Amino acid sequence: MKLDAEFVSLPRLVTGRADAIRNHYRHNWKSEPTAIRWAAGPIADLPSDFCVLEFPPGKHQWWTYATCSMSQPADASPIEIHLHSPVQTRNHAELMTAAAHYHRTAACLGLGHTVNFGRPWLPGSRCDHGLVSLPYLDGPDLELLELDGKTIRCLWLIPITRSEVEFAKNEGLENLEKRFEISRLNYLDPKRKAVA
Length: 196
Known about the structure:
It is a single chain. By secondary structure, the protein is α+β, with helices and mostly antiparallel strands. It has one domain. Helix content is 28%, strand content 27%.
């Protein structure tokens, strides 16, 4: 497969820490990832071993893009995030890199936080933000990774709309998640209607 000019494929991961994170995902998703790095933008601000892992369908029947080494040993509350997609697109590696950059250089992300993607998640989608959520599809086996004497939380970045962000701010995250449950949210549908 020919890579887009903005991305480089990494033949191997740089550190044992990055390899441990990759193996944790591989064990849970039963799929072999490709490590990619977005070569444009302020990539030098991120840890040298940072990359995005692109997982083809395995345990799940969709693509998954996961940060690798967004967390670092000195972090007070280390996290990694992942995004599910109905299609393969390296644009998700850009989104994940931008989210990691924000986390490392502006404000630490955590459970319940939102990220402004700055563009639709997929073409034609109303979802232009992401919600950092528990990995409900995979449970604590994926969520919790013990590494370097700390627990890294592997959290799910769910694409949501601007109106859903506002609803969560005004009514609370729990109420937004109730609406997701009632509507049987199809998180893989880029054309889904907002629940709030």
